[in-house]
């Protein structure tokens, strides 16, 4: 389950090409079902980034708009943001979103499925007023991240 599919619905990508991806997001009920599955603690459901850093020009128009959402710099934060929004909307309960649920969905279940060893490093999330970058530029290409300019969690790595 991707970070962006926990947030978007059909109206999201119909109004913003930077939210257009495949499979396309559908109804609020579909999104809510994904949120409940992600927060269920069932190891059959785990995070996959499917981040697609398409050049901004290929997302803005032309004959065929590139399908894909760029989430990579903020994937963990976006998932936690989606869980928080789901709690505010009454889809999930705050007491159901524990560190163990987040760790299972974001790390343990996928590692177990793919037979990967657990890592000793961990992350720390804090509310510090960080905002998702508006645009990432290089000499050759500009990429627009999902939820650009919106507030999110700050993330730091620890050993």
From TrEMBL:
Annotated InterPro entries: DHOdimr (IPR004721), Dihydroorotase_CS (IPR002195), Metal_Hydrolase (IPR032466)
GO biological process: one example: 'de novo' UMP biosynthetic process
Gene3D superfamilies: Metal-dependent hydrolases (3.20.20.140)
GO CC, one annotated term: cytoplasm
Molecular function (Gene Ontology), one example: dihydroorotase activity
Highest rank taxon of the organism: Eukaryota
PROSITE patterns tied to this protein: DIHYDROOROTASE_2
Keyword check for Zinc: yes
Keywords (A to Z) from UniProt: Hydrolase, Metal-binding, Pyrimidine biosynthesis, Zinc
The keyword Transferase is annotated on this UniProt entry: no
PANTHER family found in the cross-reference section: DIHYDROOROTASE
Descriptive protein name: ORF
